[in-house]
Write a structure and sequence with these properties.
CATH topology: Immunoglobulin-like
CATH superfamily: Invasion associated locus B (IalB) protein
CATH class: Mainly Beta
Strand order of the largest sheet: 1-2-3-5-6-9-8-7-10-11-4
Largest sheet: 11 strands, antiparallel
Shape: globular
Oligomer: single chain
Number of strands: 11
Radius of gyration: 18 Å
Order of helices and strands: HEEEEEEEEEHEEH
Distance between the termini: 27 Å
Length: 200
């Protein structure tokens, strides 16, 4: 089993930035006017950004956004979506926003790595599952993230997702809350194709 994946530290920051970029792009703000020359002024601290590198939206395809970012000077591309339906048992337990994130990192020779964040810490040593069509994939968990347990099945999972309508992720929190998140796969193929084009 692989211990935590490469983007574990940056993942929440990139996701928060990606959703902020997506919301901003949908508002279609007017382009800023050309800057006028100004006399030199005292340097200002850089404006804070959410995360190590603000993602750039490459395109929105159905439920899936395609992005690129360069954390620590290393280019990554990713497709991301929120679940179309999210349930907990007991009902209405509070948690952070869940999402599925599929990343490609050329410098690490990683392509289409599936990461799932459920919005709460998983029960220690528990496993989660992702069902796509008639196939169930076992996921190992760490913190609030889950990754495919058998790395050799990752390409099969991506193929199933490209051909499928939905992916259903189930897991149990450290407090015993069971979650079921359903992700629409509408637009995933186009988002992954755009990611592959950008991160060759």
């Amino acid at each position: 089993m692989r211990v935590h994946r490469g983007l574990a530290f940056f993942l929440p920051l990139l996701i928060a930035s990606a959703f902020a970029v997506s919301a901003g792009a949908q508002q279609q703000a007017a382009p800023p006017a050309a800057a006028k020359p100004k006399p030199p002024a005292a340097p200002k601290p850089p404006a804070p950004v959410a995360g190590p590198a603000k993602p750039t939206l490459l395109g929105q395809y159905g439920e899936w956004g395609a992005y690129t970012a360069t954390p620590n000077g290393r280019k990554i591309c990713f497709a991301i979506a929120k679940p179309s339906a999210a349930e907990t048992k007991p009902a209405d337990r509070p948690r952070n926003q869940p999402y599925m994130f599929i990343s490609t990192r050329p410098a690490d020779k990683v392509s289409n790595e599936v990461s799932i964040v459920v919005g709460y810490p998983f029960k220690t040593s528990s496993e989660a599952t992702a069902q796509v069509g008639g196939t169930t994939f076992q996921l190992y968990t760490q913190g609030d993230g889950a990754w495919i347990k058998n790395a050799a099945e990752e390409a099969h999972m991506i193929d199933a997702m490209r051909a499928g309508d939905s992916a259903v992720v189930k897991g149990t929190s450290s407090r015993g809350t069971e979650s079921t998140d359903t992700y629409s796969l509408k637009g995933l193929t186009e988002a992954l194709d755009r990611v592959a084009q950008e991160c060759k």
